[in-house]
Write a structure and sequence with these properties.
seven-stranded mixed sheet; alpha/beta; globular
Length: about 325
Amino acid sequence: MPSLRLRLVDEHEVLPAFANPHALMARAVTRGRCELLPAVAWRASTWHRGCFGPRAGSTALAWNPDPVVPCRAVWLFRIRSAHYIPSFGAVISSGGEVMQLSIDEARFVTPDLAALPGVRKQDDDMVLDLAGASVPTLAKAAVTLSWGGILNYGHFLLDCVTGASLLRDTPGLGGHSRVFPRLQDWQRRHLELAEVAPLELADPIYHVSDLVFTSCMAHFLGTPNVNYRRLRERQLRNHRATGETPTRIYVSRRGRVNRQFVSENALEDRLRAAGFAVILPEELPVDQQIRSFHQSNRCRRCKGEDEAQTARRVGV
């Protein structure tokens, strides 16, 4: 297999647009994109009535009690004959196009892509050199996990599982395996609760005859869309009951090397005295994490609100 000269491309510039998933997944289509969810810009009161209000403290900064929350569109991309690198989430066309949204998070640690398996520098270019390599082929695959979500909890849940859950409801993708690198138990459980069956891959690089991936892979946690709420409802429906949980919690960063309060121990003591439970979520099973945050994040003004009515109000 010859070396591929790599070049970073914008999916929206190089992949033609289709009206819907049915058109995109037609047999004759070799590459393209379609919008799965439109961009929205709703006020906080539309997202969740009652969970907004005046600012706390005495800051003089301007404050909007009901701000507009912008959410970007979600796109589905399709490429026939592509290479997939599980450990970085990289999607590379057979012509050497590196799909920007698949690799955006990985570029924080390898801006020139040199750390990717099989990639080396040749003169002024980066090339994918597969000469002599054994590259397994997958017939159909759906990619949702980028580099950021492999180790980071927030990126895994909010960039990856949201996209994987959305693809579960997308027509035409029943034959596409949901592919991942080797996962940890907590990651498997989140996917199970989202009703996603992962295919875990061990080789460094794969050829995929028909590959799809989503725009959620690139920092979706910054500007989410309504599939956050869909995932929430699905996981709440499927999680196991864990008994009584506290309604007031403090998430401790005790023992962490970053983002820890200097006064962490004293702060925890005072919060316990005020009736808070101090928890370290990483020590709890996923189902208990979900239950704990679900019980504690419902503000006093919306405790009795029916979740189905909330979903209907925002069109989910």
